[in-house]
Amino acid sequence: MTQQLILNLLPAPVPTLDNYVPGKNQAAIAALQSCEPGRAVYLWGPPGAGRSHLLQALGFADHALYIHHNNANRLLQTLVEADVIDYRRIAVDGVERYDDEAQAALFALYNRWRESASSMHAFALLVAGDRAPMHMPVREDLRTRLGWDLVFRLELLSDDERGQALQTRASERGLHLSPEVINWILTHYARDMNRLSQLIDALDHYSLARQRAITLPLLREFLAHEDATALAAP
């Protein structure tokens, strides 16, 4: 079997609410789980707190739509121009990166959300940015709307919680990580859970390609390998 085939054996787990480790963010998770059409939630917090994970978990579900800043202009404009919005949940990510056109469309979508909240065409609106609504670098009328309903600040995980998250990620890929490996990663690697998850996925591929168990020597060899430099912490 070629190395490329080996690397394609185990796709990365898709984001779900179940594989998100909440830490101090239980209230936000509970609000998302119970968010019905007609309600809105705004999530903010530092990189690595899981904003995109949560929005993708909900936005990629049935009767839902996930919007990233790369496709925001097109998708948001399509929504606000539609006679009827058929989605029950719309997840809008990375608002701090939206240009003027996307901000105007999101402002219009918030108005559609409020107008339809008590109708049969109601939808839940989930939005995320990197800072609190009043500090967002967006137009003033949109800044106000970001705080219209529920707002939650997502907190980063503690070291113990990050260790649990790493074990969960590894278990989903059928991996066993020893306490020695976990402790080394937490001590020497990035704190951002997105980067840590990338590390586990890439380490899985590396160990499969070499048909070796994941040990501390293999981890150090992997991080020294030129293919791992893009993942290394700054």
From TrEMBL:
InterPro entries with a match to the protein in the record: Hda, Hda_lid, P-loop_NTPase
Domain Hda lid: 159-223
GO cellular component, one term: plasma membrane
Coiled-coil parts of chain: none
Single annotated GO MF: DNA replication origin binding
One GO biological process term: negative regulation of DNA-templated DNA replication initiation
One protein family per Pfam: Hda_lid
SUPFAM superfamilies: P-loop containing nucleoside triphosphate hydrolases
Name used for this protein in its record: DnaA regulatory inactivator Hda
Organism, as annotated: Pusillimonas minor
Species classification: Bacteria, Pseudomonadati, Pseudomonadota, Betaproteobacteria, Burkholderiales
